[in-house]
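hey can u check if this looks right to u? its 178 residues, i copy pasted from the old doc so theres a chance i mangled smth
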Amino acid sequence: MLGIFRQFARALTGKVDPLEFALGILFGILLGILPMHEIDAGSGFLGLNGLWLLGLTCCLVLKASIPIAVLFAGFSKLLAILFLDVTAVSLGEKLLNGGLPESMVIGFSQSMPSLQLHTYWGMGTALLGISLAVVMFLASYLTMRSKLPVWREKFGQTKLAKALGGFFLFRIIGRLIA
C-alpha cells in the first residue's frame, strides 16, 4: 500500500512519466483477467499459464509501475470473477468452435500448449484481456500525458501540499522518493 502511495507522490512531484503509469494499467488489467494457473492440467509451464508468465515478464522488462499494475490486477480480477469470466468462456467457445481455422486451433493445442489458447477460457480471456488492456492503456496514456503536468503544478501550489511538506512524515517520504 505504501508503494502505491509512493508512486502517486512520485507522479505528482514529476519523477514518474505517464508511460510508466499507463504500462502499469495495461499489464495490471491483462494479468488480472488472464488465469494465473494452468487451465488444461499438465500443459502449463511450471504449473502456470504461459501467457500470464509472458505478461508478467513483459511488465517487469518494460519497467511498468508495479504498484499500479497490482492495483489494476486486483480490480480486474474482481471484475473477472463477477462477470468477465463468463463472457470470456463464451467468446473462446465461439472462436474455437468455428471462428478460427481448424489448423490454427490444432496448432495452439500441439505447439503452444502452455499458452492455454487451446481452451475456451484461455482463448477467451487472452482476447478479452488484451483488447480491454489496450483500450485502457491508450485512454490512460493520452489523458495522463496531457493532464499530468497541470496536476503536478496545481498540487505543488496548494496549501495542502505546502502544509504537508512541513510534516516530519512527509519529509521522510520525500527523501525515500528522491
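Helices lie at 2-13, 18-33, 50-61, 66-99, 102-111, 120-156, 159-165, 168-177.
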